[in-house]
Write a structure and sequence with these properties.
- 68% of the residues lie in helices and 0% in strands.
- With 189 residues, the protein is mostly helical.
- It has one domain (3-188).
- The longest helix is centred in the first third of the chain and has 19 residues, at 36-54.
Length: 189
């Protein structure tokens, strides 16, 4: 899902990076299945998701998308924001995105006991350098297509990247403003 923005908003800590990335794969109560650091990252991920649901810029972005996409607009915005996070990484971090991505891939490759659905993605994430390739709209299109395939019921996500291109400048503006406000919000998490 939207790994890169969650990584940007994470505490700069290995376990919290992992927890932030696992957020869409771990549901329900957080138990002792994970270390305290990973649990902290999972809680942060959930806090950021709650923040997004009330943030005016995230909501503006959802409203830009054709209503036919319904509840899937949030997933689309998540992916669109990862595109802009990758394109504008230099505005938020002094570490080059390529170097940061390699660090995260190395960290992921060492992990044990991750949820199966997430663990299955790690080799693909590394092979295709997902975090850096989010800069390309084609990567976002492929990601949306793959997400659509994992959802059991019929959905309109495959091909939905056209909405990104239709409102590109507005999404970029909203993403930047959302990120600025989220960086302030996470100080208190």
């Amino acid at each position: 899902m939207n790994y890169l923005l969650h990584l940007l908003l994470s505490q700069p800590n290995d376990e919290q990076y992992i927890g932030n990335m696992l957020g869409d794969f771990v549901k329900g109560p957080l138990d002792k299945q994970f270390s305290p650091g990973i649990i902290a990252g999972l809680r942060r991920h959930r806090g950021i998701d709650c923040f997004a649901e009330t943030n005016q810029f995230f909501q503006n972005s959802k409203q830009l998308i054709d209503p036919q996409y319904g509840l899937y607009r949030g997933i689309m915005v998540d992916m669109f924001y990862d595109h802009f996070t990758a394109c504008n990484w230099h505005k938020y971090s002094s570490i080059k995105l390529e170097d940061f991505a390699q660090y995260i891939y190395s960290l992921l490759a060492q992990q044990q006991n991750l949820p199966d659905k997430f663990a299955a993605q790690i080799p693909l994430m590394i092979k295709y350098n997902w975090l850096v390739s989010y800069r390309q709209p084609e990567t976002i299109a492929r990601a949306l297509h793959h997400i659509s395939q994992r959802i059991v019921r019929p959905n309109p996500l495959s091909g939905s990247e056209e909405e990104l291109l239709k409102h590109y400048a507005a999404f970029e503006h909203d993403c930047h403003e959302f990120t600025r406000s989220a960086l302030q919000y996470v100080i208190h998490l």
